[in-house]
Amino acid sequence: MRIPMRISAIAFAGGMLGALCHGQPMFRGDAAHTGVYTGSGPRQLHGVKWKFATGDRIISSPVWYEGVVYFGSDDHNLYAVDAATGRQNWKFSTNGPVPSTPAVAAGIVYFPSYDGKFYAVDAQTGKLKWKFATGGERRFEAKGLHGMLPKNQTFPDPWDVYLSSPVVAQGAVYFGSGDGNFYALDAASGELRWKFATGDVVHASPAYDSGTLYFGSWDTYLYALDAASGKEKWRFKSGDDPLIHNQIGFQSSPAVVDGVVYTGCRDSNVYAVDAATGKQKWKFFNDYSWVITSPAVTRGKVVFATSDSSLFRVADAATGKEVTKQSSKAYVFASPAVAGDVVYLGVLNGTVEARDLNSGKLLWEFQTETSRLNRNWVLTADRKFNGPMLSISSWRETATGEMDRQSTVGSFFSSALIANGVVYIGSTDGYLYALE
Amino acid sequence: MSDLLRATILVSAALLCQAAEPAAARWEGDVQIPGKELRIVIDLAQDSHGQWTGSAIVLGFGIKGAPLTDIAVKESDVSFTIKGALGDPKFKGRLAANHTLTGDFQQGGNTAPFTLQKAGEPQVDAPRHSTTIRRELEGAWQGEMDFFGTVKVRLEMANQPGGNATAKFTLTRTRDNPLPLNLVTDEGGILTLQATDAGITYEGKFRKEANEINGIFQQGPIEVTLVLHPAAKSGEAARP
Question: Residue A269 in contact with residue A285, Cβ under 8 Å?
């Protein structure tokens, strides 16, 4: 069930009905994180409306609020950009990368930064309202992670790319942190209402539905908390991987629809869990390929994509049986965004795909310039990742080097926002693109 | 001698010199990939039967002694593939009188030019060959290991008339996955099986008193214990 957020009086008074045509200004388009945007996006690609340059890669997903697009960049800034012109309204500087998706409510933009602070900024002016210090950020880490050498060395995970994106409900703002806690802050004052300790990093984003918050942690658990008190309602155990810690933890953020929580997991499953009890309804195994994407749920279908196996998949929401499977060319971390009958999906090879929701068939692709240039042969000629040219040494450079090389093609970790017929999405080439 | 005859001899000699540029050598140089130069050393040689052999070193990629396959040398045209490294790239080049081998490097559907310079005698890294195995190791073995869940293993080994052993390794989780083994050795009391393409190695010791092979199954940095016992009946025990 989708909970209606504040409907802006200004939006009505100003005749900006477009503001109501694309969901709510937060990650995945609404508090339940359905990934569904009302209105429609382009079924055919006509071109780049504009592109906006930042100083570093963009992992954050854009949100739309009253004609302005808000997003973070690894250049430490949060940006407010005019959605029509691509001109900068303002930028707000933090002391760390901002790979999270902001939430906007009642004229305030909320977001965390890798500097370990959580910020509330005036949406119109970009002036600080308040900030809150968490216990500090860190990436997920483990000994011999992903098979890196030496086995007894602890490595931070370069694929832990996102920070938790906040959700706003009941006058509070909720988010997870690298310090292992899940926080509830008063949205107006920034004062701590409560915090809940998990066993590891929380970089997945919470979904909110009917007074309950749902989120996953890298400690293998999916949690349901009472939004008012922070009391645990249930926890659901996912897979573990004591060998190389590769098949473990939640980066995917859950979607809650009709009393069911749907989430991907790095243990390669998509889970459907009863929202009331925490009991598993079904799981969809993806042959050891991570499911980082947060599923989009609409019309009885669960839409998601996989990393290594690079598959676009649609499952029946009631049974978990596969409805559609199509091959994308490279790893997918970005979450599918649905508008009308079209699914928009960013791919790490520097391509945005638009697919038909029903058949999964490709409608159009957009490829970044850096992806076309393909320096260092990061990609094969058919735009798959060129594995042998990427991984030079698991000893000298860790997986960070491989990940950085992949990102040189303008990878789309960012999930698409669809507003007023335009697709907005950020790339690791540093640009936010508006495609129409 | 007429001028015409003299000219004919000179041209023929020049052509002979060009054709005589031998491919057998150590070749050093680079592949000009956009944004990077791949530094490569190629060793090409002919064995006593005239068969071409070769190996490759790719500096900075940890590749040393990767075997060359599909070697073809026809007059000035030289082509070969690096097997089991860098995605099995292909080289198609031409020898020139100035001791260079130049041409195209193809990998992952991409093509880039390469230039190699002769750098002395070939130093081909000889690939390891399978050996015979002890008689008590021949036959079918089975076991189970915990490798991201339970995996059943079936191993069949036999010495071949030529002297070297061959083996068939089948891993079964929900279905049979036969592993193509490229090396089977039994040296110093240690049985070694290698499936290079999959990055898998099994090293085990035969314990006569228990009639078992006690070893370690390794894929990349992951190591798990795998103990194999004689299969009860060939073709039955390893079924899931």
Answer: yes
Residues of chain A whose C-beta is under 8 A from some C-beta in B? 144, 147-149, 151, 241, 243-244, 247, 288, 373-377, 379-382, 384, 386-389, 392-394
Say which DSSP state B196 is in.
Answer: G
- Give the nearest partner residue to A386 out of B60, B87, B222, using CB atoms: B87
- Judged by CB atoms closer than 8 Å, whether chains meet at A377 and B61 is answered as no
Closest residue in chain A to residue B221, using alpha carbons only:
A147
- Probe site for chain B from A248, A269, A377, A378 (most B CB atoms < 10 A): A377
Q: How many CB atoms lie within 10 A of CB A195?
A: 16
Across the A/B interface, how many CB contacts are shorter than 8 Å?
Answer: 61
Subunit contact B107:A386, Cβ cutoff 8 A = yes
Q: Do B61 and A392 touch (CB under 8 A)?
A: yes
Please report, as a single letter, which amino acid is at residue A4.
P
R_g of chain A, CA atoms, integer Å: 20
Nearest CA in chain B to A376: B35
The two three-digit tokens of residue A64, written as one number: 């739309």
- Give me the torsion for CA of A237, A238, A243, A247, rounded to 10°: -160
| H or E stretch covering A370 | helix A369-373
**Structure tokens, B149:** 């869940």
- The mean pLDDT of A406-423, rounded to a whole number, is 96
> What's the ipTM?
0.76
d(CA A413, CA A420): 22
**Does the beta-carbon distance from B107 to A244 stay under 8 Å?**
no
Maximum distance among all Cα pairs of chain B, rounded to whole angstroms: 88
The number of CA neighbours under 13 Å toward the Cβ of A128 is: 12
Element (H, E) at A388: helix A387-390
**pTM for this one?**
0.85
- Six-digit token string for B47: 């064995």
DSSP H/E element including A82: strand A77-82
- Average predicted confidence (pLDDT) for chain A: 92
Share of chain B above pLDDT 90, in %: 70
Ramachandran assignment for B199, one of left (phi > 0), alpha (psi -120 to 50 degrees), beta (any other): left
Which chain A residues touch B109 with a CB distance below 8 Å?
Answer: 380-382
The answer to whether the CB atoms of A374 and B110 lie below 8 A apart is yes
> Tens digits of per-residue pLDDT, A212-267?
999 999 999 999 999 999 999 999 999 999 889 999 999 999 999 999 999 999 99
What does the pLDDT look like over A352-390, one tens digit per residue? 999 999 999 999 999 999 999 999 999 999 999 998 888
Find the closest chain A residue to B112 by CA distance: A377
- For A97-131, write each residue's pLDDT tens digit: 999 999 999 999 999 999 999 999 999 999 999 99
- Does residue B110 belong to the interface with chain A, where contact is any CB pair within 8 Å? yes
Residues 6+ apart with CB under 8 A from B6: none
Check: CB of residue A117 under 8 Å from CB of residue A133: yes
Output b/e per residue, A154-179; b: 16+ Cβ within 10 A: ebebbbbbbbbbbbbbeebbbbbbbb
Q: For residue range B155-204, what is the model confidence (pLDDT) as tens digits? A: 999 999 988 999 999 999 888 999 889 899 999 899 999 998 788 999 99
